[in-house]
């Protein structure tokens, strides 16, 4: 699982900080999560091929999370993209994009699908062969969702030494990896447990931004591998967090601990702070494995 | 007159090229012309104070000329701007901006005025104490206007030696600069021509992008000081220019020559060309004073 942070600062793009956008690579699928102004340039800078992006998830309709979307859609059009593109986001996103395409008298030469969300409970919105994606309803000033990406269970791992010992034909491998027993030519049955071992457990990534501190989130986030949770503020500015629908680093860590996640990634820092190290320090008082997102940072989780 | 080119490349923003946006400072007024994605970051990079920008002129509703506008408006909001902001652009721009503010449930704390254009003839759209701005109807794939900024005639220059010789009180200076004669205490009349000399002639700046080659433009552009005219293509790609509503460098120069402007600035280059020097060379075959716009370039004209 690989996370490329294109931008992770709150509010306005600045000379050296980008608004929210990240690319998640999980089980060989690529997902773009949020798309602040300038995202297309950051994608180029990181040499992420535009054609690989087929699904874009927008958390909410504040500008720092989606003002780069219309430019990305237009650029794909100018580059003669043919691959379909799916946009997931709050109700309204389709109207905003189509209005701008209408006034430009420009229509995409590729299929553009909108999946507008309005549910207040979690729902599975994408189910591929390799990954499922479900919404994480968040509490913010406007309707907002996080997204939970889960790898599908992986096939069992063949114990090649055993498989070869019984001279099993390669045509049966797929079935054995799915858990089937093997039937030899002489009729003997070799139980699957002799031929395979457990695969790596499926990994999962939860993106939660923007949100006020919501302890009930922990239930849906239980045991996820990596939780990205916004931490706009430090505790010293906790009085600003709740009224603006944001969280502190300590609150993000409290969610991580309650949900027993493996790793916490912090981001969406207010630009009032000179350094982001204090966010890690504060979160570490509550939770061990804390990573700081930063613009251009690539995080690998195995 | 000072022109800061924030971006001058056609089509999509890239790692090292920005879409169209420029800041014109003329007669102590500051105008933002077009506002492609990333403009707010370029304004910061050039340390152009946001508060100085009170008028934004959008040529047309293709993304590379206005996708940065909504972000700029939002950032002004987040920074608690109080000064009014005027947006001039094609009909539709108000609907696009307000739709996005509505879904963000965010409204500007500063007065935001839209001046939507639909006229197909030139019209004066701004008339301050120091400058007038009129539209330049352009021929492009969608409704588009250039903008012509003209300094108001400046006051006559006092010949201080003469003024002091007659012991004229400072209270009369303003009137004399406007062209009045002086009446001395003994009743003598000193004709204005003895006390003043002609001021600098008013300067003017015409922004023409995007447009196909339109010879009739020369009439409205006659004798302007500086003409910015798009040159998306070189002559070798002239066959692409007309159908896409664009011009070549040679065509831009032909307009400059026919209009007898003092200086031509080229820009809106297609990113297909490795170097922009060829644009100057081609235009120079037709017109002498050719300047190449480039991202980050500041041009002074006296």
Automatic annotation (TrEMBL), chains A, B:
Source organism: Salinimicrobium profundisediminis
Needed co-factor(s): Zn(2+)
Signal peptide coordinates: none
E.C. number(s) listed in UniProt: 3.1.26.11
Assembly: Homodimer.
Residues binding Zn(2+) 2, per UniProt: 64-65, 210, 268
GO molecular function terms noted in the UniProt entry: 3'-tRNA processing endoribonuclease activity; zinc ion binding
Binding site for Zn(2+) 1: 60, 62, 140, 210
Cofactor note (record): Binds 2 Zn(2+) ions.
Entry function: Zinc phosphodiesterase, which displays some tRNA 3'-processing endonuclease activity. Probably involved in tRNA maturation, by removing a 3'-trailer from precursor tRNA.
A Pfam family of this chain: Anti-Pycsar_Apyc1
InterPro entries given in the database record: RibonucZ/Hydroxyglut_hydro, RNase_Z/BN
Lineage, broadest ranks: Bacteria, Pseudomonadati, Bacteroidota, Flavobacteriia, Flavobacteriales
Coiled coil: none
UniProt name for this protein: Ribonuclease Z
């Amino acid at each position: 699982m690989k996370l490329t942070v294109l931008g992770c600062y709150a509010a306005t793009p600045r000379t050296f900080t980008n608004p929210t956008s990240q690319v998640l690579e999980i089980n060989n699928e690529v997902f773009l999560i949020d798309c602040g102004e300038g995202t297309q340039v950051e994608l180029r800078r990181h040499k992420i091929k535009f054609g690989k992006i087929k699904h874009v998830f927008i958390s909410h309709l504040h500008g720092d999370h989606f003002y780069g979307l219309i430019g990305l859609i237009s650029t794909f059009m100018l580059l003669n993209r043919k691959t379909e593109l799916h946009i997931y986001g709050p109700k309204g996103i389709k109207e905003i994009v189509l209005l701008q395409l209408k006034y430009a008298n420009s229509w995409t030469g590729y299929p553009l699908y909108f999946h507008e969300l309005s549910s207040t409970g979690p729902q599975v919105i994408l189910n591929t062969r390799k990954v499922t994606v479900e919404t994480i309803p968040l509490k913010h000033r406007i309707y907002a969702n996080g997204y939970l990406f889960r790898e599908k269970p992986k096939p069992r791992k063949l114990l090649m030494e055993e498989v070869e010992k019984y001279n099993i034909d390669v045509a049966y491998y797929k079935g054995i990896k799915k858990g089937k027993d093997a039937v030899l030519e002489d009729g003997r049955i070799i139980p699957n447990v002799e031929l395979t071992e457990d695969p790596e457990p499926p990994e999962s990534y939860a993106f939660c931004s923007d949100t006020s501190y919501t302890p009930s989130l922990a239930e849906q986030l239980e045991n996820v591998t990596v939780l990205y949770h916004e931490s706009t503020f430090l505790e010293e500015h906790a009085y600003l967090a709740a009224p603006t629908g944001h969280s502190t680093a300590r609150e993000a860590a409290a969610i991580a601990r309650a949900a027993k996640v493996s790793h916490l990634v912090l981001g969406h820092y207010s630009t009032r702070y000179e350094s982001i190290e204090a966010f890690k320090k504060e979160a570490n008082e509550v939770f061990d494995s804390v990573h700081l997102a930063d613009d251009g940072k690539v995080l690998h989780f195995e």
